[in-house]
Amino acid sequence: MFIKTKVINTVLGEKFILASNSSSRFKLLKNAGLEFTKSKPLCNEENIKKKFFKKNLNKKNLAKYLAKEKALSVSKNNNNTLIVGSDTIIIFKNKIINKATNLVEAKKKLIKLSGKKHQIISCVSVCYKNKQIWSGQQKSTVTLKSLNDKQIDDYLNKTGKQILSSVGCYQVESLGPQIIKSIKGDFFNVLGFPLFPFLSFLSKRKK
Length: 207
Prior knowledge:
By secondary structure, this protein is of the alpha/beta class.
């Protein structure tokens, strides 16, 4: 399913900078054949979230807001380059689920999500010359298997602390399928990046 040729950039457009520390997003875009560099977002995500909620904005737009701020923070020092920011949130029972900070919290989260559906919203923002020129957002629904304590403990023993980098405490590209029952919607969106809308944007920009 992945595109394995770097020739794709001659078709889809110029190189860009990925404003992200996410290894999964980096691998996803590399496996798609895109040529880019990456840079750590120069912004405080928690402060951005506080500002967002202070404005009383729709919680489902948080990923879009964060993706834009991440891209803009890098665009300030890279005026003539496309900057790509991205963010993913999970909504469960109309509430935003935050990342677990330790394995005890991860277990509590998996107990809460066990046997139930939650919504994943991923957004990508493209900025150029310190202005957003495009954004795309997708939604998917993930249902976890009904898990007992032993199954969760066994799973977390296998994943270790690296699973804490995932908001839902699972990674579909790794051991996630062991605890996921079904995915409704775009697979790449669950990985944390709306790939097809982004490739479509690059293709149109090249024309």
